Amino acid sequence: CVSVAVIRAKAVSAKEVDSGNDIYGNPIKRIQYEIKQIKMFKGPDQDIEFIYTAPSTAVCGRLLDTGGKKEYLIAGKSEGNGKMHITLCDLVSTWDSLSPTQKKSLNQRYQMGCECKISRCLSIPCFVSSSDECLWTDWAMEKNNVDGRQAKHYACIKRSDGSCAWYRGMAPPKQEFLDIEDP
């Protein structure tokens, strides 16, 4: 069973490994990163020890710095047994590049948004289809920016009536907000 994992980690080493054969019998290569997991925000009960990816960006692989100096926020697919797989489509960000709001939201608010859906708005106008959605407009409003104002400074949080809304800032949400006050 494949599930999503979100972790903070350092890559300490990398090596190329065989991963079976393709339909023509040619060996499939993957990069195996040995990692040191710092924190798991979402995922299996077991720590992630290895991250696998394709051997180059040309085939959707993600390159990580090894040596254990750079910390990453990584979202990918948990394969079980302490293994995770990432592609170019998965979120991989250096921890230092995250805004204070993003770090605080991950550390303290992540669970408050687990039942919310974030819908990407590709062009204006766009609308949410249900009350448990937050509309992510960075892409449309800031020229295809996936790391814009909403992504850096807002968190999508569930309120007491089951609806979800963007909440801005470093301070904890006010009780009135959670009890349905416009954010």
Overview of this protein structure:
- One of its GO terms (cellular component) is extracellular space.
- One of its GO terms (biological process) is negative regulation of membrane protein ectodomain proteolysis.
- There is one protein chain.
- It is built from four helices and ten strands.
- Helix content is 13%, strand content 40%.
- The protein is mostly beta strands.
- The strands form three sheets. The protein has a five-stranded mixed beta barrel.
- The longest helix is centred in the middle third of the chain and has 10 residues.
- It folds into two domains: 91 residues, Beta Barrel (OB fold (Dihydrolipoamide Acetyltransferase, E2P)), CATH 2.40.50.120; 81 residues, Tissue inhibitor of metalloproteinase-1. Chain B, domain 1 (Alpha-Beta Complex).
